[in-house]
Amino acid sequence: MPQEYRLILKHLDQPGYTPDLDCYLRHGGYEALKKALALKPATTADGKTLTAPEQLRREVSLSGLRGRGGAGFSCGMKWNFVDRRSGKPIYLICNADESEPGTFKDRQIIYKDPHQLLEGLIISSYANDVHLAYIYIRGEMHEGARILNRAIREAKTKGLLGQNILGSGYDLELHVHRGAGAYICGEETGLIESLEGKRAYPRIKPPYFPAVLGLYQCPTIVNNVETLCHVKHIVAMGGAEYAKLGTPNNTGTRIVSLSGHVRKPGYYETEVGKVTLGELIFHEGFGGGLREGRTLKAVIPGGSSAKVLKAGERFKIKKRGPDGRDVEQQVEMLDLPYDFDSLAAAGTMSGSSAIIVMDDTTDIVAALANISEFYAHESCGQCTPCREGSLWMAKALRRLTHGEGRAQDADYLAKIADNIPGGRTICAFGEACSWPVQSFVAKFKDEFVAKGAADEAKRAGSGVAATPEMKIAASPQL
Amino acid sequence: MSFNVPSKIEAEINELITHYPQKRSASVMVLHALQDHFGHISPEAMEWTAAKLGLQPINVYELVTFYPMFHQELIGKFHLKVCRTLSCMLGGSFKLHEHLCGKLGLDPHKHGPQTTPDGKFTVEFVECLASCGTAPVMMCNEEFYEGVTTKKAEEIVARCK
Predict the structure, then answer these.
(1) Cβ of residue A304 closer than 8 Å to a chain B Cβ
(2) Closest Cα in chain A, distance from residue B126 (Å)
(3) How far is A59 from chain B (nearest CA, A)?
(4) Measured between beta carbons, which residues in chain B are less than 8 angstroms from residue A197?
(5) Nearest Cβ partner for B69 among A98, A181, A194
(6) In the predicted model, is pLDDT for residue A29 greater than 80?
(7) Which of A354, A363, A369 lies closest to A287 in space, CA to CA?
(8) Cβ–Cβ of A104/B131 closer than 8 Å?
(9) Domains parsed from chain A with CATH numbers
(10) pLDDT at A465 over 80
(11) C or N terminus of chain A, fewer CB within 10 Å?
(12) What is the ipTM of this complex?
């Protein structure tokens, strides 16, 4: 039977669990930090001597941890890319700018268990010889910033942060930095620019890989809130032991944010790949299915920039059989294991692990119009294809949802969306704004065409000519 | 030009600046502190920030026009931000927004933030507030509200005194 596996969320919803330090310490808090700081240099089987930070980095590599922010990149590899020979300071930034539509997992950790984040962050900083770190939190999370600041003060008082942490000789300063409502700050180089006090314009890579030229042109690590929390558990249980959770190449646990048309929306932590998309939506222990009399229409599996899945869609994915060989299997979308690789094989992504469920009452054109309006608002404006394209798409969708559409709008949308991604923009926002349009229009084309055609017929009947320059309502109201 | 930052706020800002190896990094935090106090970001506030951080006013102005949370106009005493994005839309945020606008005599179809003539309320549709599981959500100044029915919204408005 599919069930939750609460590693990160173990305590935070228990009755009486509070976000203060005493409560965290009563629940075994900061033991992993003590363990990390007590590590002595060790000699490996091949005769190499590893310092304590090197051992911690090795454990994270062994764990197979993949970033929980959206891209699913190997955390161990990200840390290994850091330029440690430049002589410049190394910075660590916790990305707490949770703003991918559909995602609300980091909020739970920040508000209910801030010390778990601090512990993971301090260990990660120690492992990477970092002495100055920042938590970049969404500007809208006023209370979250206050909770984190309180937690930092508590940790400092107890010698868990600041100078000479727990008598180890290791120093770390940590500050909370608030954003101011721009989604693009979630992109790591945009975030770095923003932290430098500039507009959050993502930087071009190469050369500006944060691991080499990040904050103030120094090597920088940017990790998501949940990723840093996993580091704490990896150190506590050991990388190899952690890797036994989840499935190969998709190790550990993951918090899934479930929203939209399900009976029990919320956040659920599972072993990665041990639960299917369908189980997350329909099982009693998770979403509990759709509301009375509704049927499933579509699912966005990984935050609003992930390509949509249509109910009943089938995919060919490779699965490892009992004999260890890969076998190609036909899988219905609901039977896709909810992990990084299976969703990628189905042409979409698990992204920030945010599932948005849409039932048969959903106007799919209006849903896409809503998503596109978001991206048009949030494009930073640096690259022409994204700046113009995201607006054009939102404009076409606005007219389709305001009775002013055309039958050919579906093709028009697809054409624009096909010309934004694929290396034409500095950052992945180009992909993020065009993937929903490409997938919605391809998979639900009849609805887009029908809506445009109906508008045209109506105009023909009323004697109004269809011109491309039709008056477009100023409001984004659907 | 008279632009007086109370000494308490200035002390707070001076402390903020120490968090960063480069002063410019504090820009957004300084603007937050000024907006929290003055209610909006005036040209004087931008010039003051620039002088404080050793920047040109344009370096500050370009932030105020980029980050959606900063506003140059005075807004209502109570700023109601309703989440507009997908999960909240599926959860009824458009109905909520329309209801709030109707209740306060504002036009739900108008773009951007709108303030009541008495300057008490500003209603604004904002992008995803990261609480999609409890849709629809809204904020009233710094307070955050989940699962906001039209009835609950009326109660929130009634408490704004």
Answers:
(1) yes
(2) 9
(3) 31
(4) 22, 24-28, 53, 55, 59, 63
(5) A181
(6) yes
(7) A354
(8) yes
(9) 21-244 (3.40.50.11540), 256-359 (3.10.20.600), 364-462 (1.20.1440.230)
(10) no
(11) N
(12) 0.96
